[in-house]
Design brief:
Blueprint: E1 4-12, E2 21-29, E3 38-44, H1 57-60, E4 76-77, E5 80-81, H2 84-102, E6 107-111, H3 117-131, E7 136-138, H4 145-155, H5 165-169, E8 172-176, H6 180-183, H7 185-197, E9 202-206, E10 219-221, H8 228-241, H9 247-253, E11 254-255, H10 257-267, H11 271-278, H12 282-294, E12 298-302, H13 304-307, H14 312-325, E13 335-338, H15 345-350, H16 367-374, H17 387-395, E14 401-405, H18 409-412, H19 416-425, E15 428-433, E16 446-449, E17 458-461, E18 466-470, H20 483-493, H21 505-517, H22 536-540, E19 545-546, E20 573-574, E21 591-596, H23 612-615, E22 622-625, H24 627-632, E23 640-644, E24 649-656, E25 664-668, E26 701-707, E27 712-718, E28 729-734, E29 739-745, H25 750-759, E30 764-769, E31 774-780, E32 783-790, H26 798-806, H27 814-822, E33 835-837, E34 842-843, H28 844-852, H29 858-865, H30 875-888
Parallel strand pairs: 6-7, 6-14, 8-9, 8-12, 9-10, 11-20, 12-13, 14-15, 15-16, 21-25, 22-24
Antiparallel strand pairs: 1-2, 2-3, 4-5, 4-16, 17-18, 18-19, 21-26, 22-25, 23-24, 23-26, 27-29, 27-32, 28-29, 30-31, 31-32, 33-34
Length: about 900
């Protein structure tokens, strides 16, 4: 007879915009209290259409991130704990005072794609309908705003036309500005399965870098950064020149084709000229053009590599132009497809989370209808300030109060020094967050503890317009509350009790659906009229569904525009004339800096850094630089480098890799002051932005790079985090049993090591000293309490050391102690090396050894080691390691 009870909760992943269904499994002893449930694992939800039971490594590790370490547990005012009533009163009174003294436009909200739709809806309603300002923007401005502009200009609505099923039936898939293998792994694996099922499927990757996604590419176009507009303008001109247009579709369902074509023809003379401009071979360009022309079922997946440019909106429209010109939209296997970056970036757009939107896809010209529905005393009548402009206004003293919700703009915004200055000048900074210490919370006058994933109840919308439920299975710690509750309580204290008297998120969702149906009659794409009367119990059991949901599509709608009906005034799609132009930067430097995500981390690492497993793949922020550039600058692999321009600098280690072309470098976006001494890319990125969308240009700025020298470098393992590190450079990673610090300094190490030993007051030290190294291990009660290794750290086996640190009781024979002091196992077969497969914790040393002993394909490696058999994200790296290792043993 079982002594434990088990339950399963169906919810949705809180990471990227794929929107994967997650099954959470919890257990508790029989007869124990209801709050004794412990989360034991998460797995893919088999019946969820977005992922069909698959999860990437980040999703699979969600249960490893549920601890309460670092959580914000109580409201804080001026650094002091206060009851909710005091904090809510202070927020409401301060907003009211600022409006009275300076007007509603002196107030700003800054939200996040991490908010649930219900949270977002209430925040937008309070700001635009009751405060009366449109100064509410969101971090979705940083990732999806250009795609929104492109959609609205072409379709008359912010509509993603296709669905994931289009990937399954396409004959040509183009991934443009998307490293889906790392950023949208489940979509990437869907493409892999489609390729395996139909080898004739052609895959083109368009990206200046050779990324993991190129592993499945039949063709990689490594175009120069920012030349996407030239490429797709050239494609449109070539399609016209070679007679591959769908003239009937253009005539019947579109407008403004001639103007768009004229602009395109200015950029295209012949493939020789264009290929030189793009920096690719002519035969590669010709092949791409021919494949596009001859393949009707074409899906173009585009993401931040398109959006995060000065011309991001135009680049999006250039892609859409090519699809409209060939009638490839709204049909199975034929669609332009914008991949959203966040779990609810789409939901935020539905409720009007951007400063240039009203709720439910209403435009500002229709503000009277929204005001009538809300019965609000006022309404924002024109767009508010977009993200960069909003913080600029704060720095200039025009915005007196900002409420930041579920995001970390000090890290994520460009020109972080400007953001810090703006927050310092702002009279009142309110931050709602689940974490107590972030780079942004340090500026807060009022801190409000928010519930987070696993504690919140609501909905999110993924890249294919699919609404899914996030369901709670944990009790919020301390006094943490859902964001919708916090905002509603403030609104009630401002005198808007009737309009914000919500008791359950289902009430908010119903209102959201009713607004989408209000004065609609097919005039707006976003329509949830079929869900207007959802009861609380029906809301709790709501299955994933794609909007619109109405009388025409009672079960939802997978594709739009297949009938040629668009949401423009003429009901025809609009070609947009794209005037391609060279990409520029406010900064100067030898190198073009590109930035983005790495495989196992997310945003500013608030959640993912809690998981030791996720830290293993890329434990440090690294600058990827071409080996030839590095040689010229006397930079060695693993050496500290300074990346700098007129705005600031970062200090990171160099990774020599020809995935970056000559003159180009890459930095990850995730690291901040909580995890590294100086690795925030916001120090380098200027406020260049798209003039239409306001989206910052994270994919192109100019920097210089120089090698740094230091007197010493070292690794430090501790059981508890350190509050102060007297080191010029440091980075920290969570391990299974503590923290791992990497350190470097320009002064000698002896005083530092002695100081460390003085601070550990129990246990006994084993030390090893030489001319170039100092190693020390402190043992206490049959476990390692602390350890340091100063000198050449490149030969240390970090993963083996982490395993020894976690072992209790530790073996204390002479061989083990000798290996501990050496920082690596005495036998080579004991080493794991750098982790390649995070799911199975398999490192490159283990994989290389297995290859050399006869495992000569990914399948065999999977059979013998388990690597590549879980989420599949590591397979491109396995292939690369196979290729390199087999080359050396020929």
């Amino acid at each position: 007879m079982s002594t434990t009870e088990q339950r399963h909760i169906a919810t949705t992943c809180p990471y990227c915009g794929v929107g994967c269904g997650v099954q959470v499994t919890q257990e508790k002893p029989c007869q124990s209290a209801q709050n004794d449930w412990q989360t034991v694992r998460v797995s893919g939800l088999v019946n969820h259409p977005a992922n069909g039971g698959k999860l990437c490594v980040k999703g699979s590790a969600l249960h490893e991130t549920l601890d309460h370490d670092g959580r914000l547990l109580h409201p804080m005012i001026d650094g002091q704990r206060r009851p909710w009533s005091d904090a809510l009163d202070r927020v409401a009174q301060t907003i009211h005072r600022v409006i009275q003294e300076h007007g509603p436009d002196a107030v700003a909200f800054y939200g996040s794609g991490q908010l649930l739709t219900e949270d977002y809806y209430v925040a937008n309603k309070l700001m635009k309908g009751f405060i009366g300002s449109a100064n509410m923007d969101t971090n979705s401005r940083l990732c999806m705003a250009s795609a929104v502009v492109a959609h609205k200009r072409a379709f008359g609505s912010d509509t993603v036309p296709g669905c994931y099923e289009d990937i399954d039936v396409a004959d040509l898939i183009i991934l443009q500005g998307s490293n889906a293998a790392w950023t949208h792994p489940i979509v990437y694996q869907r493409i892999v399965r489609a390729k395996q099922a139909r080898p004739e499927l052609k895959i083109v990757v368009i990206d200046p870098r050779r990324t993991a996604t190129c592993d499945i590419a039949d063709l990689h176009l490594a175009i120069q950064p920012g030349t996407d507009g030239y490429l797709f303008n050239g494609l449109l001109a070539w399609l016209a020149q070679s007679g591959h247009l769908d003239q009937q579709y253009i005539a019947q369902y579109t407008e403004q084709f001639d103007t768009a074509l004229q602009h395109a023809q200015r950029d295209y003379h012949n493939s020789v000229q264009l290929s030189e401009q793009l920096g690719i071979a002519q035969h590669e360009l010709d092949t791409f053009f021919q494949w596009f022309a001859n393949t009707h079922k074409t899906v173009t997946l585009f993401c931040q590599g398109i959006n995060q440019h000065q011309q991001g909106s135009d680049h999006g429209n250039a892609i859409i132009n090519a699809h409209l010109a060939t009638g490839r939209i709204g049909r199975p296997g034929s669609t332009p497809f914008s991949l959203t970056g966040q779990p609810n970036a789409m939901g935020g757009r539905e409720v009007g989370g951007l400063a240039n939107q009203l709720a439910a896809h209403f435009e500002f010209a229709q503000h009277e209808q929204v005001q009538a529905f809300w019965q609000s005393p006022t309404i924002a009548k024109q767009p508010g300030l977009k993200a960069i402009d909003l913080f600029d206004a704060m720095a200039e003293g025009r915005i007196k109060l900002i409420w930041i919700m579920a995001t970390n703009p000090v890290v994520s915004m460009p020109n972080s020094a400007r953001i810090r200055a703006a927050l310092r000048r702002c009279e009142t900074v309110i931050v709602s967050d689940c974490m107590a210490i972030t780079d942004t919370t340090e500026f807060a006058d009022i801190l409000l503890p928010s519930a987070t994933w696993g504690e919140k109840n609501g909905t999110v919308t993924n890249s294919e317009r699919r609404i899914s439920r996030q369901r709670p299975f944990l009790t919020p710690p301390g006094e943490a509350k859902p964001d919708w509750w916090i905002i509603s309580q403030v609104a009630q204290r401002m005198g808007f009790e009737h309009a914000f008297a919500y008791q359950h998120p289902s009430e908010i969702f119903r209102e959201h659906a009713q607004l989408s149906a209000y004065h609609n009659d097919g005039q707006r794409d976003f329509d949830l009229s079929g869900l207007c009367h959802l009861s609380e119990s029906e809301y709790e059991t709501l299955k994933p569904i794609q909007w619109p949901v109405n009388n025409v599509h009672p079960q939802g709608c997978s594709r739009l525009f297949g009938d040629g009906h668009f949401f423009t005034t003429s009901q025809k799609a609009q070609f947009v004339a794209v005037a391609a132009a060279p990409t520029t930067s406010q900064t100067n430097g030898r190198f073009i800096l590109n930035s983005g995500r790495v495989r196992d981390q997310w945003h500013t690492m608030t959640r993912t850094a809690k998981s030791p497993r996720l830290a293993n793949h890329r434990p440090l922020p690294l600058l990827t630089i071409n080996p030839s550039d590095a040689e010229e600058l006397n930079i060695e692999h693993g050496q500290l480098v300074r990346v700098f321009n007129a705005l600031g600098d970062v200090v990171v280690r160099a990774e020599l890799n020809d995935s970056s072309a000559l003159g180009q470098v890459f930095l990850p976006m995730h690291w901040n002051r909580q995890f590294a001494s100086r690795a925030n890319i916001g120090h380098l990125i200027p406020a260049d932005r798209d003039p239409h969308s306001g989206q910052p240009q994270f994919k192109y700025c100019r920097v210089d790079v120089e090698a740094l020298t230091s007197q010493w470098q070292g690794l430090l393992f501790t059981r508890q985090p350190l509050t102060s590190l007297q080191s010029q450079y440091w980075s920290v990673t969570r391990t299974a049993s503590g923290w791992l610090y990497e350190l470097s300094h320009h002064e000698k190490s002896k005083p530092w090591a002695e100081t460390l030993r003085q601070h550990v007051h129990h246990g006994h030290w084993l030390t090893l000293k030489g001319d170039q190294q100092q190693h020390g291990v402190c043992l206490h009660q049959q476990r390692i309490e602390c350890a340091y290794f100063i000198g050449d750290i490149s030969q240390l086996d970090r993963n083996w050391l982490q395993a020894q640190f976690a072992e209790e009781p530790i073996t204390t024979n002479a061989n083990t102690l000798q290996a501990l002091l050496a920082g690596k196992p005495s036998q080579a077969q004991g080493r794991t090396g750098n982790i390649i497969c995070s799911c199975a914790h398999i490192g490159d040393v283990t994989i290389e050894h297995t290859i050399r002993t006869g495992a000569h394909c990914v399948t065999t490696l999977g059979q013998q080691l388990g690597c590549g058999t879980h989420c599949g994200s590591c397979i491109p790296e396995l292939r690369a390691l196979l290729e390199n290792t087999l080359e050396t043993i020929k």
